[in-house]
Amino acid sequence: MAYTAVELIELKRDGEPLPADGIEWLIAAYTDGTVPDYQMAAMAMAIVLNGMNAEELGVWTNAMLNSGDVLDLSDIPFPKVDKHSTGGVGDKISIPLAPLIAACGVTVPMMSGRGLGHTGGTLDKLESIPGFSPRIDQRRFREIVAAHNLVLAGQSETMVPADQKLYALRDSTGTVPSIPLISSSIMSKKLSEGLDGLLLDVKTGSGAFMKDLDGSRDLARTMVGVGIRSGVETVALITDMDQPLGHEVGNANEIKESVDVLNGHGPPDVTELTLAFGEVMLELAGIGGGRERLEETIASGSALAKLKEVTLALGGDPAVLQDTSLLETATFRSVLPSPGDGYVTRCDALTIGLAATRLGAGRERKEDGVDHGVGLTLHAKVGDRVARGEPLVTAVYGDEARWEAQRDKLASAWSIDELPPKTRPLIIERIDRSRI
What we know:
About 45% of the residues lie in helices and about 15% in strands.
């Protein structure tokens, strides 16, 4: 053994680059358990503080990718395109988007993750559907993709196992907001899918891991560069995450809102991003029709039918997608009223995301479960006019003590002023091969 974990941690702690063979050894040793969680947590924190150069990041990503199996979908005759978000609050876009694109004739082998920090996870939301089981092996993953042009699943134990361990560790050790760690986590998973094209939704703002536009732009360029150098045409859209997307935050709540989008009456921001992302994914797949094709696919019901198909294939009950009132909801309900008259000038995504997590919709520790019935319904967002006493948010929760601890913090997410605010666009910037 040429290295020890301590030696490598000390190198990165002191701002030195890690040697390529040291990175490869570290990832392999962490995957097989030779390096324990506490040492990898120290390395992750050193990377948060001191970063990685492009060469280190390439080696780290490839070591993660090669820690397990890589899918070969070359026998599937359709273009293969996926989408990934860096994480936000109320960000359920993947759930209506993936079946919509699959219904347009594109293969979407979507490998998703669980909640990370204050942000919700696609798998946690999907598991709100009774019986839905996203943990499948590589053979079953391929079968479902071949049969339905779509899969919405987690990583099998043999696919990118290094990321599975490190993803959960970062969530519970304060080491999420790091461009190298975010980039390598996302890109190692996506490159293992055998894609032709990849769309990245890079969030910026209060509820994003990258709070400022410059950081979000750096993350987008880093990931687009990794994808293109690996032979996958990659586009990133930088999107706003100062306030939550849609009106629903929480697992079952967001499934309901996703179904609303596929029924043609979702909230404007979620619908707009679904269609805008869909246009880019069709572009990456080389399929024409653009927004008109996407709107026709929703109107025909074939996108919702595709979601029901894949839900059934993964053991879920599609009846709850027909009647979303059958989804789980928590026992207790409270409404927070507006303290005054005026316009909402702030609806802070981070504050709302943290409150939802601490009420039980997310995880505060690696081993925590989630309560799928916990959720927040937002009645007023930035630009809306409210009167004193009108509801700002309705919370459903299972633990009254948790609610008492979060009530005032949640209420602090809203600011109300006499004058209407300036708003920024949902899609702020596009990063593709011409801008890296």
